[in-house]
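Appendix B.2, paired examples.
Example (i):
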Amino acid sequence: MPRSPKAAAATAAGLGIAAALALVTAPTANGHGYTDTPISRQKLCANRTVADCGPIQWEPQSVEGLKGFPAAGPADGRICSANHTEFAQLDDPRGGAWPATPVTSGQSYSFRWQFTANHSTTDFRYYVTKNGWNPNKPLTRADLDPQPFLTVAYNGARPAMTTVHQGAMPSGKTGRHLILAVWTVNDTVNAFYSCSDVQF
C-alpha cells in the first residue's frame, strides 16, 4: 500500500536527521604520530612525566598543522603545538625545565616515531636550535638552524607503525637544545610536529 506524501516526507526527514547524527557522532582521525626517541614533549605529557599538560596527554599523536615549514606551517611561538590552542602547554618553555634527553653532538642516533595511523609521506625533517638560543622562550623559526640536520625522503611511501631513522646528531652543539621533527604528509595539506628537549 503506497504511503501518503506526509508519511514519506516524515521518513525522509528522519533519515536526514539520522545521517546528520551519524556524521556528528562518527569517530574522526585526530592526528597520527609523534617522536618518542628522543622523547617529545607530547609523549612526556602522555607518560605523565610532566604534569599540567591539558588534553595533549590523551592524544600525543595529534599535533597536526599546515605543512610547508619553515616557509609556512605554525606561527612562531606556537610551533610545538602546531597552532593548536588546546595544546598550548607544548609551547610553554616551563622556565627551561622540560626533561631533556642526553645526546652527543655528531654521534649516530636512532630517531623513532610511533604512529597510530600512517600516511603517504613526503619526508621527515629534523631541525635543531642554534647555539645560544634561549630555552626560556617559546620556539621561533629564528631559534632554529635554517636547514634540517637530517632529511629522510619517502616519496609517497607509508612508514611502518614504528619507524626509526638512523642519522647523526648535529655537530658543534653543546648544552641544552630543542629538536623539532616535522613529518610531512604527502596527500593532505598537513604535517605533524614534534618537539624534543635534548642536552648535548
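Example (ii):
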Amino acid sequence: MFLGYEPDFFHLITAAGFRLYPLEPVWSDVEKARALALDQGRGVRNPFTLELVRRRVSAERQLIRDTGAVAVIHGTNLTSLISSRAEKVPLFYPVPFALTRPHVSQTRTGLLAVPRRIEPTFMSVFRTLYNFAPLVPRAFTVVARENGVTPLRSMASMFEADHNLLTVMQWELDAYSLPAGYERVGPIYAQLPGDVPDWIHELASSPRPLVYLALGSSASRRLTVSAIHSLGSLPVNVVAPLRHYLTNEDLKELPGNVTVTGLLPAHQLGKFVDAAVLHGGQGTVQTACATGIPFVGMGLQPEQRWNVSVCERLGNAISIRPRQIGAPLFGRAVRRTLEDPAMRDAADRVKRAYAGENGAAAVAAVVERVVASRK
C-alpha cells in the first residue's frame, strides 16, 4: 500500500494496480519549489512548517494503525522518520550510498563542487556540519518530542532509517566499511510500462546517432533549454522526455533535430540510443548503466556528482559541470561518448554486471526477514 502527498505521479501507482492513500496537507507549487531548492542547496526557505510536519505525522500514524502495517518503506519522506518510530514499526530506507553517514564519514574527494586539491579540507568541514550541526528544521525536533521520539538534530539523522538498504553496485562500497543497520541491496530504477514509440524506431534508423537527454525532477527550465539547444547544434538526433519543463514558446523554438516528449520506458531504449546526457540522479544513471549507454553527466548536487564520478572511474561516463553546457567542452564530451570504443566497451561491461542484480527483490527479502524475526 502506498501513501503520498503531491499527486504528480499518483497515476503511475494506481495504474500498476496498487492501493494508494493520498494524504494531506499537500504542498503548493511554491512550497514544492522551495523544497527542491533546499535539496539542491540553492535556497534556504524552509517549507517544513510546524503545522505541516505535525499534520503529516498524525496522518501517517493513523494510516499505519488503520492498515495494520508491519513495515514502512520510505523514499525520503522525512516525516516517516517520526511516524514509523512513534508507532514502533520498523522503517526501511532504500537509498543511494552517497550522503549516508558511512559515506560522508569515510569520503575525502569526489563529492563537493570544489577543486580536488582542496576538497579534503572542505570535506572535513562538511563532515562536521553533517554529523553534528543542529541544521534540522525546528518543526522536526518539536514534533518528534510531541510523539515520544528521539529528536532529529543533525542532517545525518534525517537520512538514516532503522534499516538502510544501499541501492548501489558492490564496486561503490569496496573501499568502505558499513556499520550495523546498513546493507547493500543493489540497483533500483524505474521500469515504466508501455512500448517504445514507433517514432523512436524511426529516429534510431537514421544515419545520425540518437542521444537521450534526461534531467530528472531536479533540473530547471533554464538548464533544460540550454541543454536542448546545445545538443541541437550537434550532428545528432535528440529525444528528451522533458515536456514538463518547457513552455509553449519553448516548444515552438525547438531545434529541428530535437524531439521533446513525456515520460518514456527508458529501460527499453538501450538498443535505440547511442549516448545520453543526464543530470546524475541515481535512477537515470542506473538506467543508462543497465542498458549499456555511455553518458555525459552533470551532477546538480553532491549525490548526483558522486553518481557520475563513480561511472567516470568505470569508464562509461564523462563528468562535466552544469555551467559547461553550451561550451565547446560539452560538444567534445558528447562526441566522445559516441565515438570512443573504450567508452562503449566499458558501458557493455557495466551492463553485464547489472544483469545479475535485482535491488527491488532484495529489498523485499530484507523486509520479510526483519518482519519474520520480530514475530
